[in-house]
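Assemble and predict.
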Amino acid sequence: MAAIESVLNEARVFEPSAEQMARASIGGMDAYRALVDEAARDYEGFWSRLAKQHLSWHKPFTRGLDESNAPFYTWFADGQLNASYNCLDRHVEAGLGERTAIIFERDDGEVQRVSYRELLARVCRLANALRARGVRKGDRVVIYMPMSVEGVVAMQACARIGATHSVVFGGFSSKSLNERLIDAQAVAVITADEQVRGGKRLPLKSIVDEALGMGGTEAVAQVIVYQRTGGDVTWQAGRDVWLHDVVADQADTAEPEWVDAEHPLFILYTSGSTGKPKGVQHSTAGYLLWAELTMRWTFDLRPESDVFWCTADIGWITGHTYICYGPTAAGGTQVMFEGVPTYPNAGRFWEMIQRHQVTVFYTAPTAIRSLIKAADADEAIHPRRYDLSSLRILGTVGEPINPEAWIWYHEQVGGGRCPVVDTFWQTETGGHMITPLPGATPLVPGSCTLPLPGIMAAVVDETGQDVPNGQGGILVVKRPWPAMLRTVWGNPERYKSGYFPAELGGNLYLAGDGAVRNDKTGYFTIMGRIDDVLNVSGHRMGTMEIESALVAHELVAEAAVVGRPDETTGEAIVAFVVLKRSRPEGAEAKQIADQLRAWVGKEIGPIAKPRDIRFGDNLPKTRSGKIMRRLLRGLAKGEQVTQDTSTLENPAILDQLGEAI
Ligand code: WT7
């Protein structure tokens, strides 16, 4: 809470300069307020106007919002369009075919430039191949790809034929991939032989083989493999095909499949408070509208002159909205990077900004914090050693940014000239929700400031009543907006009860975060998740998921997982474990902890590996048998237990569990 106090008392305010105001698409707070007022006066009309202006429709819509089957809202439902058409063809038709869409930099530094004309041709060739191989509108295609132009091509090719893609982050294990393939009932997988990160080659195809070997995935008729490295792969004839082979004879034009506005563009799995990840389902029109519009509002994108770079992976929502769809829908030029920020050294980001003359840079607080450390340790890779004068806007996403990191980013990277937009949003929201607007919003380090026009964000209590500014509460959104998720794939009940809980009245979207608004400014500060979801390096992890993975190990009887604040990664995962056998100590404890860590890596993926594992004879529980998680969170931080422990059967276990291995 100390960190939040310091943000609420943050006195530094950074006003936009006259120059920033003059050039921004929403220049100044008056323009922002005018849009907010327009949305308040005529909510549906506001969104409909924007949807007409920013999207190209095959068949225009006549209806805006439909709330008749709440909370299963629809937007622009009788209109038809195609996402890939909006991202590619319309720019080529407007004479912008030669504009660079993607500047792709490989891990080893090799650079490839892809124009809009070329990207469209590649998308069409794969779309034709998918069609020829029997993939149809509405089918689900799982994409398990490295950061690559081919990854974007795969997503857009699915969109072009109306297939719903589900991208699985390349760091997830075969087990996680298997679960997602089953849940989505995928008919095809698009993957690569290997991925390359930080000079290392990591397998992808063999993980797909393993996932398909686990069963339940009989619907997967084909695996299309992009050859990235030429590394060895095993091949199942009849099922596996090379991407370069299937596109070889295909035409480079393909009629887009015109889909209804509500057609599911993609499903993206994310962690919640149960053991099973949920498939967040997004629409086509509402989602794409927001991807395009937030590129212009939040990043003030000038497609003709900006070079945008979002460092996220396409396996996460940030990569969907701000790599695959947003920059292309807006017709901009973007950098896409295969590798990691620390290879060949921790100056890679700064070097790339300099090399490609990046103007708008978007990354995660965890990356900034680790690069601060690296720059402190090695002057040679400090951002001041690079020419970063091309930059004009900086953004962050994924977790709260502490004021110190914000100030460093602003000064050392942005030279004090560039507004920092701290964008709060979620997989479920499709795009930015609460964020400053460059050239308009006065900035306060550590605050995501104000909701975008049309986003009715509020802070309420447990009964859904507004709380006064200055008082903490639950972050909600009061009205459905076009880019919101439509349902949880295959589980409408979970959508309804999870996001529109009856306790809040059933009509407020529950974000799952705590928030507080500043007394004077009304600015929002996000206080972190109120459910059992952790945020590790900007990655969302369910504690229950990790617990289920741990108890699936033959040695483990019981496990409880909590987060501990961490300077670099935001939170670190700490697991309290009771074994079926006696409590291990010393070298043996260390060895079993390593074994369990590796196990979780195998079960879920390396990002879910606990930082600390602690063993006890038991876990602290209330009389009714509930694990006392608050107490465990305290122990994880190394705090003395001050809580009443009289209900504990065996208080001695607190000493055991407080002991780091
Ligand atoms: C959760 C959503 C949005 C893309 C990346 C993460 C946290 C996100 C911020 C921010 C404070 C933030 C929230 C949210 N979060 N952005 N600017 N300030 N917290 O997407 O994996 O769906 O995670 O990330 O806790 O609920 P996600």
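The chain has 20 helices and 30 strands.
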